[in-house]
Amino acid sequence: MVERISHWIDGKPWSGVAQRTGDVFDPATGEIRSHVDFAAPEQVAEAVDAAARALPGWRSASLAARTRILFAFRELLAARKHELARIVTSEHGKVESDAAGEIARAIENVEYACGAAAHLKGGFSENASTGVDVYSIAQPLGVVGVISPFNFPAMVPLWFVPNALACGNTVVLKPSEKDPSAANFIAELFAEAGLPAGVLNVLHGDKVAVDGLLEHPTVKAVSFVGSTPVARYVYETGTRNGKRVQALGGAKNHMVVLPDADLDLAADAAVSAGFGSAGERCMAVSVVVAVDPVGDELVARIAERMGRLRVGDGRRESSEMGPLVTAAHRARVESYVDAGASAGATLVVDGREVTVDGADGGFWLGPTLFDHVGTDMPVYTDEIFGPVLSVVRTPSYDAALDLVNANAYGNGTAIFTCDGGAARRFQNEVEVGMVGVNVPIPVPVGYYSFGGWKDSLFGDTHAYGPEGLHFFTRTKVVTSRWLDPSHGGVNLGFPRNT
Ligand code: NAD
User: How many Å apart are CA 328 and CA 27, to the nearest integer?
Assistant: First the structure.
């Protein structure tokens, strides 16, 4: 029996009949699990109207009342994290322990939002001028849109939704159509936590839903995460329509290994961050930059570890890496393996020959390693978003730095070295938004903010943490004087502070 997944609007499942739907697969079997309704412009309007109706009540609810609901949501999410992890695995394919990790990182963001009251305090300057006080207040924007990708169906929505709500906004969330169930689960938990109807709505669909949000005059801001071409489009269209937009795009993350690095640590990190979630992470390591003379030894240690990885159904505890999300995505990633081999890169481990602990129809592709990759090859220039790791060799630290800085993307990078001075130089000189030192491409903790540079982020505000609260509020500055008997009468000169 194929399930139907529908929108969550005004505190309940949408009861209409969709004109268009999409297939949602179980990537480990290749079978269709469910059909998801795709929003037409009428459903976009319904969701935005519900959010607009809920806005006056929610923005005027006290900070204490708003954060109390976030605390309750945090408790429910922690209590039901295994259930949510299973949902993520069944539609995305990542192994359950990895899905649980994504939820743990999501909970961090909810916890940060629970403390929003402390962060939303404005400034106050008593006696800025004689008898005049000046203070700032942070107010919500209104109805905001959140558009998320398939690869973190629980975490990425929760990068934005908790902070947006804590700030007093109401939200329309448009998750990926490839794994839509996590968003509904989250919305139901919020309702159980006491969130009033209409404050958080989930709209399913594709470009039609996204365009509807980008064009709707009531939507004041959009937070987007996805591939670079769509991020650029969302940024340009949203800002053209007068909205505040942060659009996080794709990545090609380089891990630089200097000759003095601990090579076992570096090889562990390259394999963990290269093949975790089958490489479908925006913070995956996709390029190892081996600075001479470490290349041969490093490649051997990486290949040895790859030989022990167990690929299989994410529901099995023995599996370390699951399938890719769809057959189409699998075919695209495989085409890069073909292209890398024909471009002349050395295919050290060929994932097309993988043996799998799972159903024949699953979207499997094993971990793949290329050595001697050239920077003009598509396997290097393009974001592959699969279990394909490329090793590029460079003669020096400077050549490695130039390579990273010349890349169009700037999401994350890492350096492996025992030389503190080299690491410090790298963190200063590299043109990338998030840097790891002996840590493979770290996702910053919830009280910092997440965001790349260059083609990895359009807009000027990063996601979650302090920048998230900044994104979801606008400030007002009030200059006030309470009547005193000494006012000086009419004066047409420009006011000076005395
Ligand atoms: P995607 O760009 O295909 O889709 C993202 C969202 O945009 C989805 O909700 C989708 O329905 C919608 N969408 C797709 N095509 C559209 C179009 N033409 N017009 C309007 N909307 C459209 O991305 P994906 O495949 O779901 O996710 C993987 C991508 O996301 C990778 O490029 C990855 O690097 C990136 N990503 C980036 C970050 C980050 O923080 N920078 C985090 C996670 C994922």
Answer: 11
**Taking 90 as the threshold, does the pLDDT of residue 462 lie above it?**
yes
Q: Which atom of ligand 1 is nearest to the CA of 329?
A: 25
Best mutation site among 109, 230, 409 for ligand 1, i.e. most ligand atoms within 8 A of its Cβ? 230
Q: Which sequence positions are flagged as catalytic? A: 282
Domains of the chain: 3-249+456-478 (3.40.605.10), 253-437 (3.40.309.10)
18 lines ligand 1 (CB under 6 A): no
Residue ID of nearest Cα to ligand 1 atom 34: 250
What CA–CA distances, in Å, run from 217 to 8, 55, 130, 194, 428? 21, 15, 42, 28, 41
Nearest CA to ligand 1 atom 24: 149
What is the per-residue pLDDT across 21-58, written as a single tens digit (0 to 9) for each?
999 999 999 999 999 999 999 999 999 999 999 999 99
The per-residue pLDDT for 489 is 83
Cα of 227 from ligand 1 centre, angstroms: 4
> The pTM is what?
0.97
- 48 vs 170: CA distance, rounded Å: 9
